[in-house]
Amino acid sequence: KAGVTQTPRYLIKTRGQQVTLSCSPISGHRSVSWYQQTPGQGLQFLFEYFSETQRNKGNFPGRFSGRQFSNSRSEMNVSTLELGDSALYLCASSLGGRPNTEAFFGQGTRLTVV
Amino acid sequence: GQNIDQPTEMTATEGAIVQINCTYQTSGFNGLFWYQQHAGEAPTFLSYNVLDGLEEKGRFSSFLSRSKGYSYLLLKELQMKDSASYLCAVRDSNYQLIWGAGTKLIIKP
Fold it and tell me: A25: which of A29, A37, B7, B55 fits an S-S bond (Cβ 3.0–4.6 Å)?
């Protein structure tokens, strides 16, 4: 079955612009989580959506927002981009609802802000 | 606050055994995961522990002690392809995954 798909893979934006990233989870998965990964910082949790509702949220400013559609696809938006937003953004999907369900990651979107 | 600690980097020799430690302090505990991430690729699932003890899966084993807030990943018969970062993550009481910064494992011939 198809894995987690993230688009686009690479993106270059200018400071002050806004960007939307997309994530299509594995079919049947209802939970989608977003992470920011920078060298040496590990995975920083942004938010998790489950059945179109935001279930958990990390400690990121309000410039970072997301949503999930009825087909479980999710989008993440970052407004007023800053240089420090340059990172790999990873999306992970899981069945959700049970603690032992593993998360499957997409290949990520590498965002560069110049 | 919630915290997960792992060594930043480890070096080992091909064919040897290496143990990567992970200690955690989280709000509740609903299991601990280990993931492998090769450079430029997405993390992939290795193991899940929720009860104390050792879980063995081929060359990889993972151990958990909930009373000590401690886990380790044991890699045997190391191969060059095992060079990667190894991420420890704990699912807390809100079912959120809390991640460590990862351990970069370098395998030398």
Answer: A29
